Amino acid sequence: MRETLGTLDIPVRYRAFNVGEVPGLPYLLYYTTDNQGTLKADNHNYAKVYNLTLELYSEEKDLELEEKLEALLDMNNIEYDTFESYLDTESMYEVAYDITI
C-alpha cells in the first residue's frame, strides 16, 4: 500500500510521523482499523482482508490532490468512503478514506 501511495509525491507514513519529523502539508497517513480477517469458504482461507484508513491532510481544500488520490484508488479497484473535517486546533483539513482490501 505504501508503495502505491508513494506515487502521489507527498510524504506518506504508517500511523504517524515521529515527533519533530512532521513534514509540511500536504501529507498522508494510513493505518489498519478494526479487525483484520480472512475470506473463508470450503474450510480454506482464500484471502486476507485489511480494513484501512487513509488520512489526507492539507492546509487548504485541495480538490486536485483528492482527485489524484481517488483516481489512484479507482485505478487499483479499491472501494472507499470519504469523510471530511477541518481541524481547528491544527488549522488544516483532513479527508479520511475508509477502505477494505
Strand order of the largest sheet: 1-2-5-7-6
Structural class, from secondary structure content?
A: alpha+beta
Oligomer: single chain
- Tally the structural domains: 1
Please state the overall shape, judged from the principal axes of the Cα atoms: elongated
Distance between the termini: 10 Å
Please estimate the helix content: 10-25%
Organism: Pseudolactococcus chungangensis CAU 28 = DSM 22330
Protein name: Prophage pi2 protein 38
Protein described:
This protein is an alpha+beta fold. The chain has helices at residues 2-5, 63-75; strands at residues 12-14, 27-32, 37-41, 44-49, 51-58, 80-87, 92-100. Strands 1-2-5-7-6 form a five-stranded mixed sheet, with no helix packed on it. It has a two-stranded antiparallel ribbon with strand order 3-4.
Please outline the helices and strands.
Elements lengths: L1 H4 L6 E3 L12 E6 L4 E5 L2 E6 L1 E8 L4 H13 L4 E8 L4 E9 L1
Parallel strand pairs: 1-2
Antiparallel strand pairs: 2-5, 3-4, 5-7, 6-7
Short description:
17% of the residues lie in helices and 45% in strands. The chain has 101 residues and is an alpha+beta fold. This is Prophage pi2 protein 38.
List its traits.
STM4215-like, 7 strands, 5-stranded mixed β-sheet, 45% strand, 17% helix, single chain, alpha+beta, 101 residues, Prophage pi2 protein 38
